[in-house]
Amino acid sequence: MGILVHQSWIAVLSCVLLMGGEVWCDCSGQNLDIEGGHFTLSKQFERGSKLTYHCPDGFYPHPKMERTCQLNGRWKPAPNGPQKCKLVECPDPNVLEYGIVSPFQEKYFVGNETTYECYSGYNMRGSTKRICLENGKWSGFTPICSNDIHDNCADPGIPAGALRTGNIFGIDDKVTYSCNGNLFLVGSKERVCQENGQWSGQEPACYFTYTYDTPREASGAFSGGIRDTLTILKPINDTQYGKSLRILKNGTMNIYIAVDISESIKEKEFDTAKDTVTKLLQKISSFTVNPNYEIIFFSSEIFEVANILDFLDKTTNYSTVIENLKTFKRIGKESGTDLNLALKTILERMQYMKDGNFTHRVHTFADYRHVIILFTDGVYNMGGSPLPTVEMIKNMVYMNAATEAKDPPRDEYLDIYVFAIGTAPFDEELQPLTVGVGGKHYYRLKDISNLGATFDEMINQDDVVGLCGLHKETNEPTLNNRIVKRYMYPWLIFIIIKDSKCMGSLVNSKFILTAAHCIPFGTFPENITVETELTEEKIKHNITNFYIHPDYNLSAKRDIGVKEFYDYDVALIQMEEELPISTSLRPICIPCTKETRDALKLDVKSTCADQEKALFKDHQERLSFLTKTTNIVDKADVHAKLGDNRPDCIKHALEAESMPNNIKVQDVVTENFLCTGGKSPHRDDIACKGDSGGALFKMYQHRMIQVGVVSWGTKDLCKSRKLPNPVESLENTRDFHINLFRVLNFLKSILGNDNQTDYAPMTFLE
Ligand SMILES: *[C@@H]1O[C@H](CO)[C@@H](O)[C@H](O)[C@H]1NC(C)=O
Ligand SMILES: *[C@@H]1O[C@H](CO)[C@@H](O)[C@H](O)[C@H]1NC(C)=O
Ligand SMILES: *[C@@H]1O[C@H](CO)[C@@H](O)[C@H](O)[C@H]1NC(C)=O
Ligand SMILES: *[C@@H]1O[C@H](CO)[C@@H](O)[C@H](O)[C@H]1NC(C)=O
Ligand SMILES: *[C@@H]1O[C@H](CO)[C@@H](O)[C@H](O)[C@H]1NC(C)=O
Ligand SMILES: *[C@@H]1O[C@H](CO)[C@@H](O)[C@H](O)[C@H]1NC(C)=O
Ligand SMILES: *[C@@H]1O[C@H](CO)[C@@H](O)[C@H](O)[C@H]1NC(C)=O
Ligand SMILES: *[C@@H]1O[C@H](CO)[C@@H](O)[C@H](O)[C@H]1NC(C)=O
Ligand SMILES: *[C@@H]1O[C@H](CO)[C@@H](O)[C@H](O)[C@H]1NC(C)=O
């Protein structure tokens, strides 16, 4: 444990004489030092500057976390008395009923370990061993000793540092919690035993002023709450939570994000905040629920990046919002935090949504579900308490009706999440702003950094694993590179026939798409081995059949000297068993399916041609494929030359080795091929032998869409490969890939065949 060097500031006293003879002075730099730590200032010693104390991990500043330089040139609170970094303490675990906590100590410090044991006749739930962590929380779960014999609900336990009243756990019985000493309660103060045997709300916790949630905890818990809201694709009987999820109508999810950018949130944090919001949006958008967004940054003023009414009017869309977010600049020197103004803006939008006249109105206000996410450093020094505004929002969404009286209950239609950010957020004012049933709604974070990264893992996609093209970017340092790739490209399949290896892509739980030339003439299904890598181990699967494109004929042009003709080089392999879909094994999207339409966020009336337009916008369309080295895959980047760029690209096909003279390029490169390679205007990568059959794909708003199958190339450059990088193209080397838009009839005839009972057919668009 290193103790940071003290940081001393030279006090420069300066005063300003204002009109009217008033004198404003800077604050003094005296007596500010902290033993064992250091401090930072938001605006040097100027008025309004915020001083924040920092301590090494496992320590916290005592007695004060922050000071503010007031207009009168004095610090508040005043620095009288010593300030030091104290060892983090965890709340008292000796609240366990019917059991023993050892060792018994008066105080428990960071690193201290405790073990829990129940009296005989009582059963243990929760953790039997817990460690006091640097953020002031115990690891694991609250230990509970109970003899749950005849109660309707299980004993809800007593969290460390808490006091519980209520010892009867029958239907409608209540338990209430409070925290001892100088701890405060985060979570449900009161819980009711419900008919389904579950307690309402969520387990509360006792926090010290220095207790915080790690980004991982915050995003993990936040995911639980918002996932329900986002994955309402089909009603499922969720006995665990005692409620069934309801179908949400398309376009009825409203997400409001308000981010505090007042001066107390530092400049560099502004970009982090923007990134975090972007990440959050990207993650949410990977689900098929198309939410409407309101995004505001606020201080004493409102800066609106996305107006939700534009979504309802269909004058904006997700891509535009992401773009606007990117270019949004912090304006001027915002001061003050008017959280109430931010919430009032949201209320106004709701009011308009309710009363307004929209050209494209399809839903009534009652259909909309609202999720408000607030990021604030926790001080609102202007505009008054936002609590009355929250009450008005609640009334509006609950439609002034008793929430229980409606089915589904109206309280499922509003969630307010608060991310309180900073060393000393105003919990007492902020926590009451949270609204929502189930799941933690109040988060307390030291700073906003890392939140974006963990949002990536946030929304647990396990419920929607079957959705095509979803993947997981993970930067978990403990995972090895191969597993990271597995999450990134969960559709990747290896196909082994005799000694030759190819790649393929999972297009649904029963089919793999690959190149026809990977399955040479005379191959039987038994000769094909399909390998998936589930996290660490390789798993071999049996196949029942394969289908080669009926027009594929490698020797079709032997008569004009073309030894190998690769037109229609596609095949589908049918698995004997459905593959177990998970976060590390799930399908990629293929063109012209309904699922891909949703992934591309196209209209329900959109056609196959609309998908092609969305995917091939540029005449230098950036695409990727995977290239394999010894035991790991890497992404290779290419640009498909389309339109005017195509002729120049494909003409190099004739430079391939063993290509006969005097043939036309059209004889070897039909309209069914996409052409990549070359160095200008972009330097492309080139495929190697084992990459055949792999997916040529496009990353589209965080979903991966396959547009081609890697087929053949003009030159093998792979011998000179410098691992681990992909091989770069030369000026005139080219690769050719089967364009999936050109072999749709084949794909449809097998994948979309509803005249069989072996597998669920996919729905293709016209
Ligand atoms: C608890 O932690 C404190 C501070 O690190 C240490 O001095 C003490 O020995 C620990 N107690 C036990 C029982 O480990
Ligand atoms: C949910 O479970 C109940 C009782 O087990 C059953 O009656 C109902 O049909 C189920 N609903 C669905 C959609 O599976
Ligand atoms: C969106 O609407 C279409 C057609 O109305 C429907 O088929 C589809 O399931 C809906 N999607 C969701 C997520 O509700
Ligand atoms: C989103 O809006 C922009 C600008 O109005 C438009 O150019 C773009 O095509 C739209 N994107 C989608 C996916 O609708
Ligand atoms: C809504 O707008 C349309 C077109 O602008 C108009 O014809 C209609 O009268 C308006 N309805 C109401 C209730 O204002
Ligand atoms: C392919 O399978 C057939 C039929 O099971 C078998 O006779 C043949 O030996 C296999 N070929 C190879 C190379 O394994
Ligand atoms: C594959 O087929 C073989 C022979 O029919 C069988 O023994 C084996 O269990 C099958 N493997 C799987 C994973 O089903
Ligand atoms: C492939 O093309 C050659 C040359 O046109 C033809 O003789 C042969 O029958 C074709 N093979 C198949 C399986 O159609
Ligand atoms: C479906 O299968 C039946 C029986 O094999 C056949 O008669 C019919 O033509 C098939 N229909 C289609 C659309 O393939």
Automatic annotation (TrEMBL):
<feature type="active site" description="Charge relay system">
    <location>
        <position position="517"/>
    </location>
</feature>
<keyword id="KW-0645">Protease</keyword>
<keyword id="KW-0677">Repeat</keyword>
<feature type="domain" description="Sushi">
    <location>
        <begin position="88"/>
        <end position="147"/>
    </location>
</feature>
<feature type="domain" description="Sushi">
    <location>
        <begin position="25"/>
        <end position="87"/>
    </location>
</feature>
<dbReference type="InterPro" id="IPR035976">
    <property type="entry name" value="Sushi/SCR/CCP_sf"/>
</dbReference>
<dbReference type="InterPro" id="IPR001254">
    <property type="entry name" value="Trypsin_dom"/>
</dbReference>
<dbReference type="GO" id="GO:0070062">
    <property type="term" value="C:extracellular exosome"/>
</dbReference>
<keyword id="KW-0325">Glycoprotein</keyword>
<dbReference type="InterPro" id="IPR036465">
    <property type="entry name" value="vWFA_dom_sf"/>
</dbReference>
<dbReference type="Pfam" id="PF00089">
    <property type="entry name" value="Trypsin"/>
</dbReference>
<dbReference type="InterPro" id="IPR001314">
    <property type="entry name" value="Peptidase_S1A"/>
</dbReference>
<keyword id="KW-0391">Immunity</keyword>
<keyword id="KW-0399">Innate immunity</keyword>
<dbReference type="GO" id="GO:0004252">
    <property type="term" value="F:serine-type endopeptidase activity"/>
</dbReference>
<keyword id="KW-0964">Secreted</keyword>
<feature type="domain" description="Sushi">
    <location>
        <begin position="151"/>
        <end position="208"/>
    </location>
</feature>
<dbReference type="Pfam" id="PF00092">
    <property type="entry name" value="VWA"/>
</dbReference>
<dbReference type="Pfam" id="PF00084">
    <property type="entry name" value="Sushi"/>
</dbReference>
<dbReference type="GO" id="GO:0006956">
    <property type="term" value="P:complement activation"/>
</dbReference>
<dbReference type="InterPro" id="IPR018114">
    <property type="entry name" value="TRYPSIN_HIS"/>
</dbReference>
<feature type="active site" description="Charge relay system">
    <location>
        <position position="569"/>
    </location>
</feature>
<feature type="disulfide bond">
    <location>
        <begin position="179"/>
        <end position="206"/>
    </location>
</feature>
<dbReference type="GO" id="GO:0006508">
    <property type="term" value="P:proteolysis"/>
</dbReference>
<dbReference type="GO" id="GO:0009617">
    <property type="term" value="P:response to bacterium"/>
</dbReference>
<keyword id="KW-1015">Disulfide bond</keyword>
<keyword id="KW-0768">Sushi</keyword>
<keyword id="KW-0378">Hydrolase</keyword>
<feature type="signal peptide">
    <location>
        <begin position="1"/>
        <end position="25"/>
    </location>
</feature>
<dbReference type="GO" id="GO:0045087">
    <property type="term" value="P:innate immune response"/>
</dbReference>
<keyword id="KW-0732">Signal</keyword>
<keyword id="KW-0720">Serine protease</keyword>
<dbReference type="InterPro" id="IPR009003">
    <property type="entry name" value="Peptidase_S1_PA"/>
</dbReference>
<feature type="domain" description="VWFA">
    <location>
        <begin position="254"/>
        <end position="458"/>
    </location>
</feature>
<protein>
    <recommendedName>
        <fullName>C3/C5 convertase</fullName>
    </recommendedName>
</protein>
<feature type="active site" description="Charge relay system">
    <location>
        <position position="692"/>
    </location>
</feature>
<dbReference type="InterPro" id="IPR011360">
    <property type="entry name" value="Compl_C2_B"/>
</dbReference>
<dbReference type="GO" id="GO:0009986">
    <property type="term" value="C:cell surface"/>
</dbReference>
<feature type="disulfide bond">
    <location>
        <begin position="118"/>
        <end position="145"/>
    </location>
</feature>
<dbReference type="InterPro" id="IPR002035">
    <property type="entry name" value="VWF_A"/>
</dbReference>
<dbReference type="InterPro" id="IPR043504">
    <property type="entry name" value="Peptidase_S1_PA_chymotrypsin"/>
</dbReference>
<feature type="domain" description="Peptidase S1">
    <location>
        <begin position="464"/>
        <end position="752"/>
    </location>
</feature>
